[in-house]
Amino acid sequence: MAAAAVVASKTKREGRRIISLASRSSVELPITDLLVNGKLDIFPHVEEKGLLFLQFRRNMLNLAAGPYIGLIPLTPTVSVDVRPKLPIGNFAKVIDAARGSLSSITGVDRLYLSNDLASNSVLEFLAVNLLHALRPVAENGLLKDYIRTSEMTSSPRGRIDLTGTMVHAWVRGQKHKVQAQRFEQTPNVPVNRVLKSALRMLLSGLKSSGANSRQLNSAVNRAYFEMPSGIDEMRPTDFEQAKHLLLSRLLPVSRMYYIRALEIALLIVSNRGISLQDKGEDVMLDTFIVNFETMFEDYLRRVLELRADPALLRVRDGNAEGKKPLFDDRRDPPAQPDIVISSITTGKKLIAEVKYKEKPNRDDYNQAITYAVTYRTDRAILVHQNKAGAATGLRHIGTMNGIVLDAYAFDLSHADLEAEEQAFADVLLGAVV
Fold first, then answer.
1. Which residues does 213 contact at the CB level (< 8 Å), separation at least 6?
2. Do 374 and 335 contact (CB within 8 A), yes or no?
């Protein structure tokens, strides 16, 4: 069982015990630590979706983290914070490069630290959260205020301003008009202008990178046009007024449902995002989860796609367009290597299997060799995450009947991730050219 740091903590807004666990590691806990009123109430989605793996041994629970990272609720009072094997600075970059999305667990919140916004995946996450936060606003009604208006009219409503009437109408011979003042109730107030401007900024800032992104853009577009047309664009003083209203809790008690939407909107209009790994207490959002096994695979494939010369090489996903039957005389089962690189001119191929682990094992060797035979290639590479402190790059495993099997250790924690990406691409693409 791998060593794991376990930290029990509570935040004033979440009020939950948090167990910190490194990705792909495990820890044993006394079952009594998880009981509430003598009952063990584990959420069904934990095992149904493979978010965590549980094994009971007498009075102990062996809790193992799989490929999912994020704050995962285990029971109504305990959550598990599964941390990736990545430094803080690289996490959002890898998700963006993989064109991945941050999924969330419905009804489970956590506190985040705000930081500079430089990630499309984080912006998408904020967009989803803002749309959720706007639902109670739409259901319960927009905040409105009485604003004084003044107009020159022949059909006055409200109080007649005699001074204004004489100066602006009568001295000009407009005896049929008067200047009238009244208070009108309107939603055109600072907090609503901030919300509407946040939606507009999302529409201009979100990048379409797939079906989910297009659906999100459509949802944001609908939310924007559902806001009354009488709500203007944000004025220079609106941000500070809305922020003061929020921090001072000056919203009417009946409008407290504005708080979450306004927190998120202020982040967006100030071009701020959230840290996915640093803990904080700046804003309450849904808890995110990511299948980093899939993300790591998509990321490395994307690294190769961006650097491959399309006139010479094809980089395909063996789980999709690059798959083929495993056997020569049967359609099923399919062979589905993670990455298939082929030369357009020579037909030469390379199979790459991506493993979100620090060291491939015998089963991984068998799988890679089998795929190499199926794809009629003499080269297969197992790509895995580099173990801290170990050498990166290519390492020879062995040769079997002319098939060369190597391993490539990729350093996700490299200070210069772009240089690490280029070195990886040079090796794998160079093996086919």
1. 101, 124, 206, 207
2. yes
CA distance linking residue 161 with residue 166, whole number of Å: 9
**Distance between CA atoms of residues 42 and 165, nearest Å:** 72
Backbone angles phi, psi at 316, to 5 degrees: -125, 155
Count the residues in the chain: 433
Look up residue 335 and give its two tokens: 């062979």
Using alpha carbons, list the distances in angstroms from residue 33 to 36, 76, 78, 111.
Answer: 9, 13, 9, 24
Rama region for 319: left / alpha / beta (φ>0; ψ in -120 to 50; rest): alpha
- DSSP bridge pairs for 354: 383
Indicate the pairing of strand 178-186 with strand 145-153: antiparallel
How far apart are alpha carbons 305 and 299 in whole angstroms?
10
Tokens found for residue 181: 């003042």
Question: Which of 40, 19, 39 is CA-nearest to residue 28?
Answer: 19
Cα(384)–Cα(356) distance, integer angstroms = 6
The tens digit of pLDDT for each residue in 381-416 reads 999 988 877 889 999 999 999 999 999 999 988 888
Give the three-class secondary structure for 16. Answer: coil
68 in Cβ contact with 62 (< 8 Å): no
User: Please, are residues 31 and 61 in contact by the beta-carbon 8 Å criterion?
Assistant: yes
Residues 6+ apart with CB under 8 A from 399: 405
| CA separation for the pair 321, 41 (Å, rounded) | 43
- Short-list 139, 169, 141, CA closest to 153: 169
What's residue 402's pLDDT? 95
In whole angstroms, what is the distance from residue 131 CA to residue 134 CA? 5
Q: Where are the domains of the chain?
A: 1-85, 114-144+188-290, 148-186, 308-430
Q: What is the pTM of this model?
A: 0.74
Q: Which residues are paired to 178 by β-bridges?
A: 153
Q: What is the pLDDT of residue 5?
A: 38
Residue spans of the chain under pLDDT 50: 1-14
Q: Which residues contact 371 (CB under 8 A, 6 or more apart)?
A: 318, 335, 337, 351, 353, 380
Q: What angle do CA 177, 183, 188 make, to 5 degrees?
A: 115
